[in-house]
Each structure stands twice: as C-alpha cells, then as structure tokens.
Write a structure and sequence with these properties.
The protein is built from nine helices and eight strands. It has about 250 residues and is of the alpha/beta class. The protein has a domain of about 170 residues: Rossmann fold (3-Layer(aba) Sandwich). Bound molecules: S-adenosylmethionine.
Length: about 250
C-alpha cells in the first residue's frame, strides 16, 4: 500500500501519514492513559446501537475497546500507518467485529450504520461542514468530540502558551455549532473532563519531541527542557505530568 497523498492538516500540527508519526501518536497517547474514561462517555451515547462507523479511527483507541464490548465497527482511516497499528491490536475476539477502510471520510462509501463517532478527527478535514453533512446521511446517531482549550491543562498547551505557538485551528466547536444550525439539526453538547497522567523517562527526548512538534529551533531545546522539568513531578526515575483534558462531546 502506498500512503494516500494530499491529506490536509489545516491548523493541526500533527501529521499522521508516516510510520514514525503514527507510532509516536500511539506511544505518546498510550503513555498519557488516553482515552481513559472517554470510552465510557462514548458508550453511554451509543445506548441501543449495535453498529458504529468510526471516522478517523486512528490507531484504534476507541475501535478496539468498543469492538471488545460487542459493537461492530467500520473503521475509516486514511493513514495506512495508523491503520497498521490498529490492525496489530485486533485479536481473535475483536477480529469479527472490525472492518478496516483505508479511506478518507470524504472518499468513503458504505452502508448506513446505527451510529457514527468522529473523535478528535474533524481537525484535519478539508471541509468539516461537508464532512458533518455526510455524517447525517450515514447514521442516525452521531457523536463528535473536539478539544476545548479553555480549562485544559497539558504539556503541549502549556508549551504553546509559553512559546506563543498558539494553534491556528480556531474554535472547532463554533464551526460544528454553525454547521449543525445550517443543517437545521438539533444537537446536544457537553464538556467531558479527564484527568490523565503522562509518564516519561527521558527528559531530553521529551524536550526534543516538543521542539520538533512546535517547530522550534534547536537553540530553544534547553529552555523547553527547563519548562518541562519545572512542570513535572519526578518520581522514582520517571517524570509525571498530571493533565486535565476538556473536550466538547456533541451528539446529533
Ligand atoms: C488525532 S487522530 C484521532 C484518532 C482517533 N479517533 C483517536 O481518538 O485516537 C486524527 C485521525 O484522523 C485521521 N484523518 C485525517 N484526515 C481524515 C479524513 N479526511 N477522514 C478521516 N480521517 C482522517 C488521521 O489520519 C488520524 O488518524
């Protein structure tokens, strides 16, 4: 398989379409305890549903536990590297429950399902409004999760603030509200909050990662290292950062 070209990550610094970034995503989010209790919040909204389209399924942080809980999942994911990691997590019990689709949501074609989830996967889409409209046609219950920067506390946000590298992705929740109002679609939204502790062992490696992630030059490495060190707790050779993550969960 060749990687799909032309994916746009407007306002979103992370690229998922290469082997290293995909592995990095999976490793870093696992180390942070993602998705934690978010799976329960999502499952609560799936009450009465049996089949689910997972748009931008990534490395399977939701597809796998939901399949293990009995849901049938159509995982739609354009990055073959993310999909390979998802595939590696499938076991004998979940295999019959998961179908993999190496497609963008825009290109995907398939059958209507009971529900659709799009969890932190709207950011890279070329035309989020059109993507939302398509969601309304492929499931009767749809759940979108987007971050709320307000009130969240995590290392990435802290470093962005201190370096002036504020995300230019804009408030996605506004875009969703507008799209749904334009479609005359009733919806509910709530903030879901998670405390998750990131654990790492290599302070230099972490500083290098954030320098790259934020597009900073090498000469800022020591400074970044210092900020991370001051904001983490050192315990038995490891560094811990207790993060607070706030997301908007929109159901329509
Ligand atoms: C931040 S990750 C979230 C993955 C997963 N939902 C999770 O919560 O771990 C965003 C995912 O959306 C995928 N993606 C990017 N553009 C997409 C598109 N046009 N259609 C569907 N998924 C897309 C990326 O490849 C990536 O795997």
């Amino acid at each position: 398989m060749r990687p799909r070209q032309g994916m746009r990550y407007s306002g979103y610094a992370m690229n998922f379409n290469d082997r290293i970034s995909a592995a990095d995503y999976d490793r870093r989010l696992s180390a942070e305890g993602y998705p934690g209790g978010l799976v329960d919040y999502i499952e609560r909204e799936l009450d009465g549903c049996g089949s689910v389209i997972d748009v931008g399924a990534g490395t399977g942080f939701f597809a796998i536990p939901l399949a293990a809980r009995g849901y049938t999942i159509d995982a739609v994911e354009p990055s073959m590297y993310m999909l390979e990691i998802l595939q590696s997590k499938i076991d004998a019990a979940t295999a019959p429950k998961i179908r993999l689709n190496n497609r963008t949501w825009e290109d995907w074609e398939g059958e209507k399902r009971d529900a659709l989830i799009c969890l932190h996967a709207l950011y890279p889409m070329r035309d989020p409004r059109a993507a939302i409209e398509k969601m309304t046609r492929y499931a009767d219950r749809r759940i979108i999760l987007v971050r709320s920067d307000e009130g969240s506390r995590n290392l990435s946000g802290l470093l962005r603030e201190m370096t002036g590298k504020i995300r230019d992705g804009g408030p996605f929740i506004e875009l969703i509200r507008k799209a749904l109002a334009g479609l005359d679609m009733p919806y509910s939204e709530e903030i879901v909050e998670q405390r998750r502790t990131s654990v790492f062992y290599d302070l230099d490696g972490e500083a290098r990662y954030y320098c790259g992630h934020l597009g900073l030059k090498e000469d800022r490495l020591e400074w970044i290292r210092g900020i991370i060190e001051r904001n983490t707790v050192r315990r038995e050779g490891r560094f811990e950062f207790e993060g607070l993550y706030r997301d908007f969960m929109v159901t329509f």
